[in-house]
């Protein structure tokens, strides 16, 4: 009764917009039936953080744009996939957003990390300005690989989340490389960001104690981003089943990409259609109140999710996974190995134990935000940047 009231009265979903099908619906590793779990599907979709174009935010760099309409859709998609990682990290995959219900402080800490202001960890300001180091001027279009590289750099400042971010290049995931990154157990980057455990000091407004405790643990939670090209001008249908299976994995963070001239954040599929959140809506910028409270309704998509045919997907994408523990990572590796044996499912990337001899090691070389992967790795995917905007 509660979910029915929530769906019809509060969220006002129109069920006829969602297909009546016997096919299972997969949303970021969770399986649903349209006939018996429609409310749960829509509540799950609504609970994802939805970042769209915004207008009238503080000028980027002091004198730059005050809106990202027309150029920021891939940046917003990058925010959404990374926000899902932070939700899994601090709230858990089963957390749900309910309109009007008081949320825990960690929820607002996650949301505040993406608010459109210069001192938020993953704000449009930070992404755009960090992108300059990746060869992108402010206001220039990004591809999936570029936004992944920028988010990796920004994550080094986020000591509250203490994430290990790995970007697997050349269609290859090296298990040894990831374990070394997640088990590095290195101390804080600097003394100023590393107070004593008993201290209640806040770092950029976030509780530092939790981040410090996690940094001293044996495994740093992993955000794995894999930029891929699944065809020349359109997706090779041999990859479709593999792509579907990625949404079935409990570690799934979804996919960023889209179709020509339009970037989306894909969170699941049903039948032969992908389910996604669309950033192409311009909303007024949101400012926290004097008490620090953030009006959050506009950060949750309260209408039926968008869908598109998988065959329309642009072949240049980035797939994301989150492994909170080493057990999660080992389980993910086993699933990928089994997926390679599925008939009709062509592997999208290779999973290997050790680094091939011709590879460099970007994670060891890039422990500081000033290092640039562009110095070591060819940017094959960035040639597609101009295709991701309208």
UniProtKB/TrEMBL annotation:
GO terms for biological process: aggrephagy; autophagosome assembly; mitophagy; piecemeal microautophagy of the nucleus; protein processing; protein transport. It holds the Pfam family ATG4_LIR. InterPro entries: ATG4_LIR (IPR046793), Papain-like_cys_pep_sf (IPR038765), Peptidase_C54 (IPR005078), Peptidase_C54_cat (IPR046792). It is an enzyme of class 3 (hydrolase). Its EC number is 3.4.22.-. Residues 39-335 form the Peptidase C54 catalytic domain. Keywords: Autophagy, Cytoplasm, Cytoplasmic vesicle, Endoplasmic reticulum, Hydrolase, Mitochondrion, Protease, Protein transport, Thiol protease, Transport, Ubl conjugation pathway. It comes from the Eukaryota. GO terms for cellular component: autophagosome; cytoplasmic vesicle; cytosol; endoplasmic reticulum; mitochondrion. GO terms for molecular function: cysteine-type endopeptidase activity; protein-phosphatidylethanolamide deconjugating activity. It catalyses: [protein]-C-terminal L-amino acid-glycyl-phosphatidylserine + H2O = [protein]-C-terminal L-amino acid-glycine + a 1,2-diacyl-sn-glycero-3-phospho-L-serine; [protein]-C-terminal L-amino acid-glycyl-phosphatidylethanolamide + H2O = [protein]-C-terminal L-amino acid-glycine + a 1,2-diacyl-sn-glycero-3-phosphoethanolamine. It is found in: Cytoplasm, Cytosol; Cytoplasmic vesicle, Autophagosome; Endoplasmic reticulum; Mitochondrion. Cysteine protease that plays a key role in autophagy by mediating both proteolytic activation and delipidation of ATG8 family proteins. Belongs to the peptidase C54 family. This is Cysteine protease.
